Amino acid sequence: MEANLDHRKLYRLPWNLADNPIVWLEPTQQCNLACDGCYRQNVREHKPIDEVQGDLDTFARLRNFDGVSIAGGDPLCHPDVVQIVERVTKMGRKAILNTNGLDLNRELLGELKKAGLVGLTFHVDSRQGRPGWRNKTEAQMNELRSEFAEMVASVGGLACAFNSTVYEDTLEQSVDILEWAGKNIDKVHTVVFIAYRNAALDNFEYYAGGKRIDMGEVVYSEKEKRRADISSREVVAKLRERFPDFSPCAYLNGTEQPDSFKWLMTMRFGDGQRIHGYVGPRFIEAVQAGYHLVKGRYLAYSSPGALGMGRSVLASSLWDGQIRDAARSYLGWVTAHPRDLLKPVHMQSVLVIQPIDVLADGRQNMCDGCPDMTIHDGRLAWSCRLEEVKQFGQFVASTPKPPPS
Ligand code: SF4
Fold this sequence. Notes:
By secondary structure, this protein is α/β, with parallel strands linked by helices. It has eleven helices and 18 strands. α1 (49-62) runs parallel beside α2 and α9 packs across α10. The mean pLDDT is 97. Bound molecules: iron/sulfur cluster (SF4).
């Protein structure tokens, strides 16, 4: 089932190729896990620090950005990860680590914070084959998420986000992650659900430079028959089974389908016991436009301090219809439970990402205004499809296979 969402009623995030909150830096291709659904060939290959600096300089030349997602591979495999964080900080941008957390400990986290780290996005899900965490449900994986969230909170001042890939057999469990995140809203600032994708081999032929290529060589080609078309609307429908009011406010559309939600953003208010309500499109518009007006770029990663000011936002942003509803709901609740007035109200964002969709006629519906662009050969490239450029020199074209004669 798909949630009934009208993109024209939500805020279209203003992000584009040249002006975007984020860039995606890949200092290493090595990872210490082999997650199901990974988009990158896992090889022991680190970029020397000068090359990493070269990528940062190229980003700065091509794109206006607020934050750098330091990804990979797993960036903690890079021997100079602390120095990389320092380099990002030195250029006046926010350094965010995208990691599975396997190599993280409190001491290293302290060092990274000293180097200027602003936040971490942990990839944790039940299909990663983590030692000690195999064959667990997403609800059971929440125990590991809590360990990471506690570690980050103990250092203080760092944004903490969690990514998980959504497969057809774990879609049902997404809501267990959302519920856990709501209970830990003081420590968990963002939750991201990424629908699983692969390159289908049965239905399409692939071409590079006019020549047919073997897509089976690419790490994200279809290895087993399973759904690779889960939509953001489906994820929202699942989340609404337990949180019926769940209300997205902003989005990025697809390059081929303006009404597809490639990035779908929701922001909610809560105190760890109850979700009081949601932010509406006008609020997000004001935040993005206001930040751009003041800082000259779009906002990536709000600080934990700002997200902890939920009550002030509820009181001061009544011009946003959904915040008005949230404020009303909060007032009703604290009138009945006056002791809850002492609890801080936090804000938390929930993102649903629907990566590439290959349409029946072969067109590729990408994220319009892709935030996760990386660098290849001095050019911006979709990080989710970098292997194609590496292997075939360009992004491949797809066409439907002709019917058997
Ligand atoms: S186009 Fe690919 S790399 Fe860019 S945001 Fe979408 S899924 Fe991520």
